[in-house]
Amino acid sequence: AQKVTQAQTEISVVEKEDVTLDCVYETRDTTYYLFWYKQPPSGELVFLIRRNSFDEQNEISGRYSWNFQKSTSSFNFTITASQVVDSAVYFCALSLVETSGSRLTFGEGTQLTVNP
Amino acid sequence: DAGVIQSPRHEVTEMGQEVTLRCKPISGHDYLFWYRQTMMRGLELLIYFNNNVPIDDSGMPEDRFSAKMPNASFSTLKIQPSEPRDSAVYFCASSFGVLPLHFGNGTRLTVT
After folding, report:
1. Does B97 touch chain A if contact means CB atoms closer than 8 Å?
2. Cβ–Cβ of A102/B100 closer than 8 Å?
3. For position B38, what pLDDT does the model report?
4. Among A12, B43, B47, B95, which one is least packed by beta carbons within 10 Å?
5. Is A102's CB within 8 Å of B42's CB?
6. Which of B56, B101, B106 sits opposite A102 (nearest CB)?
7. pLDDT in tens, B50-109
8. How many C-beta atoms surround the C-beta of residue A58 within 10 A?
């Protein structure tokens, strides 16, 4: 069975601070995908990124960056120069490549609050 | 390009009543998923379909829950009879193969 753990339940920062959201996963499979989704106060789930287990290159997209380390089974998410609009619940998730479709196992989520 | 469409957005019903949630996936997607989100259990997979066929319904909590996908553009999740502990946000999501899931806006169900 797969498991995703987001140990940080809530994080509060002041605008312009950098913040890192931690994600640790467990799976016995060697091929899998890792994801981050954002859930703003309006409630929808917004896809942010998908990484393949074979690709450990870090990725940067604007103020967002992701650090994937297989050695520690972690897929952490950093927001640089945070903004109030970044306030949301962020979910890390995993799916197996072998199974059908993008069947996701989600972490518990991290509530990020960015204060002005 | 329309996303996943769920209806209704909000549903308030009394215990014992039948509830039907509806979902229209993105055109061309071959997978459809139903997730439930609660404070206690987070996001949990209830059931998913591939090409309209249910593949895994092991997440469906009880026989009171049933889901159908009569065609590629429509799915329903039915709860009969509903109970207060069914109160949650129910998300429908679709994907093409192993590409990322696209979620609908969810249906917030309140059972009193």
Report:
1. yes
2. yes
3. 95
4. A12
5. no
6. B101
7. 999 999 999 998 899 999 999 999 999 999 999 999 999 999 999 988 788 899 999 999
8. 13
Answer left, alpha or beta for residue A2, where phi above 0 means left and psi between -120 and 50 means alpha: beta
Residue with tokens 């306030």: A87
Chain A touched by B56 (CB under 8 Å): yes
pLDDT higher than threshold 70 for residue A75: yes
B105 neighbourhood in chain A, CB within 8 Å: 43-44
* A45·B103 Cβ contact <8 A: yes
| Numbered residues of chain A with Cβ closer than 8 Å to any chain B Cβ | 33, 35, 37, 43-47, 50, 91, 95, 97, 100-109
Read off the pLDDT of residues B16-34 as tens digits, 9 standing for 90 and up: 999 999 999 999 999 999 9
Amino acid at B50: N
CA distance B39 to chain A (A): 9
A20 near A78, Cβ under 8 Å? yes
Give SS3 for A83. Answer: coil
Inter-residue contact A22 to A6 (CB < 8 Å): yes
Residues 6 or more apart whose CB falls under 8 angstroms from that of A28 comprise: none
Q: What is the pLDDT of residues A16-74, one digit of tens each?
A: 999 999 999 999 988 899 999 999 999 999 999 999 898 888 888 999 999 999 999 99
Burial class of residue A106, CB neighbours in 10 A (0-12, 13-18, 19+) = buried
